TrEMBL record, chain A:
The keyword Transmembrane helix applies. The chain crosses the membrane at residues 20-40, 46-64. It comes from Fuscovulum blasticum DSM 2131. This is DUF2892 domain-containing protein. It comes from the Bacteria. Keywords: Membrane, Transmembrane, Transmembrane helix.
TrEMBL record, chain B:
Belongs to the binding-protein-dependent transport system permease family. GO terms for cellular component: plasma membrane. The chain crosses the membrane at residues 27-50, 95-114, 126-146, 177-202, 223-245, 287-305. This is ABC transporter permease. One of its GO terms (biological process) is transmembrane transport. It is a multi-pass membrane protein. Its main location: membrane. PROSITE patterns: ABC_TM1 (PS50928). It is found in: Cell membrane. It comes from Fuscovulum blasticum DSM 2131.
């Protein structure tokens, strides 16, 4: 777990595609969950911004080196 | 024997061939691709940019001469704080959750059963995939007949099995059954698609892995959970993402079956969007609504493409 986390953080710092794409994917999924959850209106309000950030990030980071 | 290419070259009129001979392969490729790119820009990209622009205004398409005011992010702010739209999102989430769950469970089970060799296997596969070949408009219409309280087959079967009088309930009317009715129809129509993808996954597992497991005396149950499920999982994820995106945009079938009713029980986002845009004529507001849905679908599609690439690498 610690090894995975350190590899993930190193990848982020070195601007590697894999970890950044994973981060963007998490943001997109989080945004979609926030959009459709029935518990908190504030989460619904901020969902679009989270999904948009994730999507834009995905478009940019998919051009990063492997 | 003369080469057909030489024949075509000889048949080309001299002025044309002279003009073409001066062009590089790249230029010729661009000439062929240009009309498609132009159409794509005109039909897809331009309306998208125009919608983004409209989403920041109070434009109403039924009042073309009214003054169009720039309202900034107000449309987005109103949508994202609207209880009604939040409820619509939850209705869509309910529809998405149950359709995906049922389609994955039934689709995977069917694929697992069909993957075994038995007589009539091909015929059965063909019969199972028929629903997904039908048009959603046709499916919507004939399920409306099946759900008729007086003459519908569904109510008749329920009466036969439970004794509840057929005309005492309506699958598409008030009473809370309508959301489940659309889930049943979508599951009936699209489970074969999930089944086909799972079948592709199951058939991609080499036999020698099972043979090695047999040598190690692994039980069938263990083989299923440690070989079959992990190796089919990327395919299953692909099917879930694809169906998720499609069902998030679901319009035609539900519009024909319930039109979003009774009340707002089956009001999915795309039906709500159509009401805002073409019944209430709030074009600017509905453009912002469409952009929110577009960004969500685009995000999900990005994950889908990533998953697809992972499956390709296998």
């Amino acid at each position: 777990m610690t090894g995975f986390l350190s590899r993930f953080l190193t990848g982020l710092l070195r601007l590697r595609r894999g970890p950044w794409e994973t981060l963007s994917t998490i943001l997109i999924a989080l945004g979609v969950v926030m959009l459709m959850q029935p518990f908190a209106l504030w989460a619904f309000t901020w969902s679009f911004l989270v999904t948009l950030t994730g999507t834009v990030m995905f478009i940019i980071t998919s051009h990063f080196p492997e | 024997m003369t080469n057909p290419i030489d024949l075509a070259a000889r048949a080309t009129p001299a002025p044309v061939s002279r003009r073409i001979r001066g062009l590089s392969d790249r230029a010729i490729a661009w000439i062929f691709v240009a009309p498609t790119i132009f159409l794509l820009l005109a039909i897809n990209i331009f309306p998208l940019i125009w919608t983004v622009r409209l989403s920041f205004t109070n434009y109403a398409a039924n009042k073309p001469n009214a003054e169009v005011k720039w309202v900034g992010l107000r449309n987005y702010q109103r949508i994202l704080t609207d209880d009604g739209i939040w409820a619509t999102m939850q209705t869509t989430a309910h529809f998405l959750f149950w359709t995906l769950l049922l389609q994955v469970v039934i689709g995977f089970t069917l694929a697992w059963l069909i993957n075994r060799k038995f007589r009539g296997n091909d015929l059965l596969t063909t019969l199972i995939v028929i629903p997904m070949m039908l048009s959603p408009a046709v499916v919507g219409n004939f399920w409306t007949f099946l759900y008729q309280p007086q003459i519908g087959l569904v109510n008749y079967v329920v009466e036969l099995l439970t004794g509840t009088p057929a005309s005492s309930f309506s699958m598409l009317g008030p009473g809370g059954l309508a959301p489940w009715s659309i889930i049943i129809v979508d599951t009936w129509m699209w489970t074969p698609f999930v089944m086909l993808i799972c079948l592709a996954g199951l058939r991609s597992i080499p036999d020698y892995i099972y043979e090695a497991a047999e040598v190690d005396r692994a039980s069938k149950w263990r083989q299923f959970w440690t070989i079959t499920v992990p190796m089919v999982l990327p395919f299953l994820m692909l099917a879930v993402l694809f169906r998720g995106i499609e069902n998030f945009k679901m319009f035609d079938m539900v519009a024909l079956l319930t039109g979003g009713g009774p009340g707002n029980e089956t009001l999915l986002t795309s039906i709500d969007l159509k009401r805002e845009a073409f019944e209430k004529w709030r074009t600017g507001y509905s453009s912002a609504y469409a952009i929110i849905l577009f960004v969500t679908v685009f995000g999900l599609a990005s994950i889908y493409v990533k998953a697809l690439n992972k499956v390709k690498e296998r």
